[in-house]
Amino acid sequence: MFVTRLLIAVGVLAILGVLYYSRFWRGRQPPEGKPGEPPAPPPEPQPPPRYTVHERPRDTKASSNYEFDILEGDRVVARYWFDFRGDEHGVRFSDGREAWPGGRVDDFISGGGPYPPLLTPRAIAWLENELAHDR
Fold first, then answer.
1. What is the percent of the chain where pLDDT is above 70?
2. β-sheet bridge partners, residue 68
3. Is 93 helix (H, G, I), strand (E, B) or coil?
4. pLDDT of 89 higher than 80
5. Are 23 and 29 spatial neighbours (Cβ–Cβ below 8 Å)?
6. What is the full DSSP assignment across 31-89?
7. pLDDT digit string (tens) for 35-52?
8. In Å, what is the CA distance from 27 to each residue of 20, 22, 23, 35, 123?
């Protein structure tokens, strides 16, 4: 009985040791391509997004709305809002008109917590269509 438990413990430690010293455990990825080939060039840098989103300070009441300024460059073009449950949401444009983007909150904005808020591709298309009416 003791010998069986000892062998199991040694086996588990051996597996953990292999994982620790392997690429799997340390998160390293094997090099791409075949040995002897030059590495692939780095990806092209992406242009900055056309629209940026900044969260506005929120009221201390638990049932207050979340609001985000949508900026094109330095100019605020709209303010996106949603209620504390995420049931209702909408957009107020800088000219005073309001619109409903349709769908859910997740269809319009992503991120939050440790990640910056971003407009989804669907939101960008909808926003550009709505802003085209102003121009």
1. 81
2. 55, 80
3. strand
4. yes
5. yes
6. PSS-TTSPPPPPPPPPPPPSEEEEEPPPPSSTTPPEEEEEEETTEEEEEEEE-TTSS-E
7. 667 777 888 887 778 899
8. 10, 9, 6, 20, 35
